[in-house]
Write a structure and sequence with these properties.
Elements (H helix, E strand, L loop, with lengths): L6 E7 L6 H15 L3 E7 L9 H4 L14 E6 L13 E6 L14 H11 L13 E4 L2 H9 L5 E2 L18 E6 L6 H9 L4 E4 L5 H10 E6 L8 H8 L3 E5 L17 E2 L6 H14 L1 H6 L2 H7 L1 H23 L1
Parallel strand pairs: 1-2, 1-3, 3-4, 4-5, 5-6, 7-8, 7-9, 9-10, 10-11
Length: 328
């Protein structure tokens, strides 16, 4: 089998079109196409093209209903590994866009909420010993290490943020506003807000990219105290637009590969008086914003569109040519 005969079939969940993982799947399709591979996006459940967001349409990929042939390589996100059972003829690559959602080990949820999630979604998962026969991609160093513990080899392929978040902002327009993503956390933010009632906290929810970028442009802090199940997009977007990051030191944020920022901005939520520590850090950022901003110069270089898109394209080209040779 040669490269010209291979068809890459990317399985894309249609119930989460605004999620970063879906865009990463489209980015993969775009770079496969750019490197002269045949590629299709297949939505499950199938949806009308009119419902696909414009930012995904802009990747200019072909959409197709599910098929399976001997020359097909199916790329399946980790949340739907059950779809590997549909593949009778082709080969499979599991793309680990996230980690924690595989079991929903959310430290901010009660045991019963985690258990209910696991019980309701277990029929979408395949046990690990049945996954070892497939190829694997990891969207983060965190996912790579997770798979390594399961004795599963993988290749790191990290999605990139849009060039729309171009790093251009005016320091004089920045205000003492703290942004946060309410989807990622509720409990911790409320406690911080109680300590700082005189500051504005703004939830980034139900907004267009234009509205989100405007919030980044005008604000000094982006706080994400969630569990960081993967290489989260919003902190990177906010960091590029001049927001100082305050994150919980867990999940992908616990290593210096996925979130390469100084440890003083990574909070141990189990630490005594951690909320007071966060309060003091916020106060200091607002008083000395430009000093803190200098601490993020290297981070911005590492996570910029220019840097990440080049690495992504090189990795796609090398990895998928290697896959082609193995299947020849």
């Amino acid at each position: 089998m040669n490269k010209d005969n291979l068809v890459f079939f990317i399985h894309c969940p249609s119930n989460s079109l605004s999620n970063g993982g879906v865009e990463t799947l489209h980015q993969l399709g775009f770079h496969l196409k750019k490197n002269n591979f045949k590629v299709f996006i297949s939505f499950f459940p199938h949806i009308n093209k009119e419902l696909i967001p414009k930012k995904l349409i802009n990747y200019n990929l072909s959409y197709k209903k599910f098929e399976d042939e001997k020359n097909f390589i199916h790329i399946i996100p980790e949340v739907e590994t059950i779809r590997t059972k549909l593949i009778k003829k082709g080969k499979c690559i599991i793309y680990w866009l996230s980690v924690d959602s595989y079991y929903r080990r959310n430290l901010d949820k009660s045991f019963w909420k985690n258990w209910n999630y696991y019980r309701k979604t277990i029929n979408k998962r395949i046990f690990f010993f049945n996954l070892k026969k497939h190829y694997h991609l990891a969207n983060s160093h965190y996912a790579y290490k997770f798979l390594e513990k399961k004795i599963i080899n993988s290749k790191i392929l990290k999605g990139y943020i849009s060039n729309y978040f171009d790093g251009k902002f005016d320091i004089s327009k920045k205000k003492n506003i703290i942004l946060y993503n309410p989807v990622k956390d509720q409990n911790h933010y409320k406690k911080i807000m109680q300590l700082l009632p005189h500051y504005e906290f703004k939830a980034l929810s139900q907004m267009s990219d234009l509205e989100i970028k405007d919030c980044y442009y005008r604000s000094k802090i982006f706080m994400d105290l969630g569990t960081h199940p993967g290489r989260e997009r919003m902190p990177r977007e906010a960091g590029m637009m001049g927001c100082i990051l305050i994150v919980a030191n867990r999940g992908s944020a616990s290593n210096d590969y996925d979130v390469p920022i100084d440890k003083s901005y990574k909070m141990n939520l189990a630490e005594k008086n951690v909320y007071n520590k966060i309060r003091d850090l916020i106060e200091d950022i607002f008083k000395n914003y430009e000093n803190h901003l200098r601490n993020f110069e290297t981070y911005k270089e590492k996570i910029s569109y220019k840097s990440d898109v080049k690495i992504f394209d090189e990795t796609v080209r090398e990895y998928f040519h290697e896959i082609t040779k193995k299947l020849s």
